[in-house]
Amino acid sequence: MRLPKFEYFEPKQISEAVSILQNEPAAKILAGGTDLLVNMKHRVERPPVLVNIKRLGDLDFIRQDNGDVRMGALTPLKRLYMTPLVMENLPGLAQAASSVGSYHHQVMGTLAGNICQQNRCMYFNQSQWWRSSRPTCFKAGGEICHVLNKKKTCYSTYCGDMAPALLVMNARIAITGPGGSRELPIEDLFSEDGKTPLRLNQAEILTEIIIPAESVTGICRYQKFANRDSIDFPIVGTAFWASEQKKEYRIAFTAVDRKPLRAQRVEAFLKGKKLDKITITEASGLAAGEAKPVKTSVYSPANKRRMMGLLFQRVVDDAKRRSIK
Ligand SMILES: Cc1cc2nc3c(=O)[nH]c(=O)nc-3n(C[C@H](O)[C@H](O)[C@H](O)COP(=O)(O)OP(=O)(O)OC[C@H]3O[C@@H](n4cnc5c(N)ncnc54)[C@H](O)[C@@H]3O)c2cc1C
Ligand code: SF4
């Protein structure tokens, strides 16, 4: 499959990248290209201009600063599970990175590219030829949804592996745009809209991901169900964070809704409790009801909910094996 025609820029400074993006509202940022270029080949994204940010050298770093772990937007996923600082202090992040797609995606794919990836749906992530047998759906620019055609809404699913691990660690993200720089909790980046899944203003670039020191002291694990061990997006993915001392727990899911989700009811139920067998079994029942998945993949919503409960038990067991009593 060939790429459509586009104009191409390789800015060396962030300010230059922002001004190119500002001049062409339909331009897109290109990082590793492992998500965007595939969508362009399928003709579901057709930006007239690509701004390759890989030459912005100062966005590829992992360092610790006053206890916080700071990671540049262009950090390759592979680096996350090869860097002792991450492997020792943020093992859930290393697990999530090593579970993304294939080795090639982990070498080429970047942390910010993973966070900012497009939502997915079996009627959208298809070649132009495959899609031509049906009317074009909302997300691809048409007037219909083939999944739920009740409201004019796109229900495509967020399937990124890194976001849940970052959500449970209360990560913050730094963004630079025409109005300067701002920082926000990663949770606020995601909208409820499958058509425009990110709340980024025009010409804004995600530059940095920050894990607060408080989260570095807890334990974080990530588990995923996928069709095959290599190459596949999650059917369901779950991250778990625990502070043994405070008996505080955080849980997040991916691939079950339009955005990655914190499992707030499970978190409230577990707070202050010891993670014994009865508590975990009860919590896994709650976990299964934390989202209302719709059929955007070959897996039925009921199947996904069952997997949420099972995966929750698996990720807690994994964390317990490592440290929680
Ligand atoms: C076969 C296959 C399997 C895959 N499996 C998985 C999987 O298991 N798990 C998973 O999570 N992903 C998977 N992916 C998707 C993709 O490979 C990864 O998400 C990858 O990390 C994307 O990073 P990238 O740097 O290549 O992003 P790109 O493709 O360069 O960009 C992705 C999106 O993010 C935007 N973007 C990139 N950087 C920034 C930035 N700094 N600021 C603002 N916006 C930005 C781009 O404009 C684009 O819209 C798979 C892809 C394929 C083709
Ligand atoms: S949920 Fe509906 S509108 Fe969204 S991508 Fe799927 S078919 Fe298209």
What is the helix content? 25-40%
Give a count of the beta strands, DSSP E runs of length 2 or more: 12
Structural class call reads alpha+beta
**In percent terms, what proportion of residues is strand?**
15-25%
Question: What is the CA–CA distance across the termini?
Answer: 52 Å
Could you tell me which ligands this complex binds, including any ions or cofactors?
flavin-adenine dinucleotide, iron/sulfur cluster
Taking pLDDT < 50 over at least 5 consecutive residues as the criterion, the unreliable ranges are none
Order of helices and strands: EHEHEEEHHHHHHHEEEHEEEEHHH
Whole-number radius of gyration?
A: 19 Å
Mean pLDDT over all positions: 95
Please give the count of helices. 13
* Overall morphology: globular
Q: Major beta sheet, specifics?
A: 5 strands, antiparallel
Physical arrangement of strands within the biggest beta sheet: 4-5-8-6-7
SSE order and pairing:
Blueprint: E1 7-9, H1 14-23, E2 28-30, H2 36-41, E3 49-52, E4 62-65, E5 68-72, H3 77-80, H4 84-89, H5 91-99, H6 103-108, H7 111-115, H8 128-131, H9 162-168, E6 172-177, E7 180-185, E8 205-211, H10 213-216, E9 219-225, E10 236-243, E11 248-254, E12 261-262, H11 264-270, H12 277-287, H13 301-322
Parallel strand pairs: 1-3, 2-3
Antiparallel strand pairs: 4-5, 5-8, 6-7, 6-8, 9-10, 10-11, 11-12
Bound molecules: flavin-adenine dinucleotide and iron/sulfur cluster (SF4).
Flavin-adenine dinucleotide (FAD) binds at residues 28-36, 38, 53, 73, 77, 100-101, 105, 108-110, 112-114, 116-118, 160-161, 205-206, 231-233.
